[in-house]
Write a structure and sequence with these properties.
By secondary structure, the protein is an all-alpha fold. Helices cover about 60% and strands about 0% of the residues. The protein has 6 helices and no strands. Helix 2 packs across helix 4, helix 2 crosses helix 5 and helix 4 packs across helix 5. The protein is globular. The model has no long low-confidence stretch (mean pLDDT about 80).
Length: about 110
């Protein structure tokens, strides 16, 4: 809903779909425990969150949006640097359940009611 209202979202554009999945994975789906359960996960520290986001976003496009694997990887790679930096509508990466609750309680700071 956020993308449709703010970013003039086009449901038929694979780059728009990729950006949405990147932001979703970035903000909510790439905790350490979740990432280590993924196929292709590496036990490392440097840039592993970004690798997790790419992996989760690509898998989501393939399995949930029924996109071809090559198109999904191309779309994610093309928009990754821009969309990975976009932390809206939450405003930050949530690290744990307490941080998610804190972000919810601070929603008025971002203009959400």
């Amino acid at each position: 809903m956020y993308d449709r209202c703010v970013n003039k979202y086009n449901f038929n554009n694979p780059e728009h779909l990729a950006c949405t999945e990147i932001r979703r994975a970035n903000l909510a789906n790439c905790g350490f425990g979740v990432y280590m359960q993924q196929d292709g996960a590496n036990f490392g520290v440097r840039k592993e969150h970004a690798n997790c986001v790419k992996l989760v976003a690509t898998k989501a496009l393939i399995h949930q949006r029924f996109m071809d694997k090559d198109l999904a990887q191309y779309s994610v790679d093309k928009v990754f640097s821009k969309c990975y930096q976009d932390l809206e509508p939450i405003g930050r990466r949530a690290k744990d359940a307490a941080d998610i609750l804190r972000a919810f309680e601070e929603k008025f700071l971002f203009g959400y009611h």
